[in-house]
Amino acid sequence: xxxxxxxxxxxxxxxxxxxxxxxxxxxxxxxxxxxxxxxxxxxxxxxxxxxxxxxxxxxxxxxxxxxxxxxxxxxxxxxxxxxxxxxxxxxxxxxxxxxxxxxxxxxxxxxxxxxxxxxxxxxxxxxxxxxxxxxxxxxxxxxxxxxxxxxxxxxxxxxxxxxxxxxxxxxxxxxxxxxxxxxxxxxxxxxxxxxxxxxxxxxxxxxxxxxxxxxxxxxxxxxxxxxxxxxxxxxxxxxxxxxxxxxxxxxxxxxxxxxxxxxxxxxxxxxxxxxxxxxxxxxxxxxxxxxxxxxxxxxxxxxxxxxxxxxxxxxxxxxxxxxxxxxxxxxxxxxxxxxxxxxxxxxxxxxxxxxxxxxxxxxxxxxxxxx
Length: 371
Fold this sequence. Notes:
This protein has helices spanning 9-22, 38-49, 60-69, 82-90, 161-167, 199-220, 234-245, 262-266, 276-280, 286-297, 327-336, 349-355, 357-369, and strands spanning 104-105, 109-111, 114-122, 134-142, 147-152, 175-180, 226-232, 251-255, 314-319, 341-345.
């Protein structure tokens, strides 16, 4: 879960400001502890959240970010299209081979020997709403690069700025980048908000991300020697599924994600943003709605798929103080992919993208080099 894009940019600014004011040395892997200690930060946050909302071991800025965004509820209009959910659960699969695509590219713009192009193609997922069917993708390339990586967007991450900010330096290291926008985000919005109104929209987004990433990898296959797929948070989970269902070897950098996303929505800090009352409907039983949500999301559990053909070319990154993704789920994914490497970043979900960018880039670069 990233706080970026049209809906979340003001939250990103507030979190960054809080980060600067509260703890200029907040730990993020190689950064280390600052003068302001954990206990002092928690004391500062308690008047805002209450003692019961300070979760042991979780970075305080994850709690802060969750509090800032929990007013923008996910699934405020309930489950959505039940027939679509039944079809996705029973017949439609992440592993279904998407059809070929043709990308229409704009004229390239050069900057420091790097070329930026924006392109569009029609999504292979025909069940997407008409306004979301056109996929927008940005490419960054450099002459002589023989490897490429498709980097998927996180939850609420609209546009390209966040991914460019974190990963653009990889182009100078020999790795071209392709950044598709998720269905229902940015130029593919169907409403005025990036907060998905129904769970069926979430299911369509996730399926579309995998089919579109896989189609894009197929499209790039004849242009590069090595291909990789990567992403952070939700983008990392969908990248891992893409690698698992791809019929040819690709590398994978799954960042801040685990085997199942179900605990993220039902137990982690993102659960504060779920409108369980809307999902419960007339039954008025949020606990039953939460259980159904868990079951539906577990359909995307990575352990239900075979490991990627080159699991040894997978680098997994977990954030040790993550309030959104459970460390046990990250470990479970690592154990289900023999030969994969698991690296721990001493950071929270938010501070990892603020202070751990180099660490994340290294994971992507190392994964791509292992093919």
